[in-house]
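Researcher: We're teaching a course module on how sequence relates to structure. For the next exercise, students receive a sequence and then see the predicted structure as tokens, so they can try to spot secondary structure elements on their own. Here is the exercise chain.
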Amino acid sequence: MSALVLKVSTAGLEALGDRARKALGAEGQNEMADAGGRAVKRLLVDYFKTLNDERHRDGGEGFYADAARSVQNPETTGGTAVIAINKIGLAQRLLGGTIKAVKGKYLAIPNPSNPDAIGHVPADFPNLQFFRTPRGGGLKLQLEVASVVGHVRTGKNAGKSRNEASIIGDVVMFWLVPEVEQKADPTVLPDQDVMQQEAFAEMDAYLTRKLQNN
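Model: And here is the predicted structure for the students to work with:
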């Protein structure tokens, strides 16, 4: 699924819908639903930006920053505003399900025990080494630490430090698997009641302004 679609309707709140039908007519109902849809869009954009700050470890722009940019303006007809979120992978995170490798043999899953891997992809790290596991494999880095072991006394490098690299050990950055079962995560979207309340508050304010001006 390439897009999530949310709907905001004047029929969702009976009293508001009745007031709108009597006071606004079909065109006014569309305008009111559009106002509610734009309120939901603003809520979604802010929500995704907050998720990006919380879940993207380096503080840069990650998956949810892309999601924020992908929220479309509402398309409104028949008293219903439709808001599309054109972020590939968002529906998968929301609903869960099986993810299989498509372009390559394996999916690269950041090692959850290694905070340096979270929020990254293998291309972010040079010199990753592959190793096999019963399920597929993994990608690791060999960590080293430089230490000063002395100083050069003579020659053109006199006075400079003489270093050695001590190998600390291998650190797993990614696990490689042919497929993974992703759990549903309803927190990738704001609560449905919160979105509904935001929409209806804006629609009610729109209707109140219209009635005051008539």
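Model: If you want an answer key for the exercise: The two ends are 44 Å apart (CA to CA). Residues 145-149, 163-168 have pLDDT under 50 and may be disordered.
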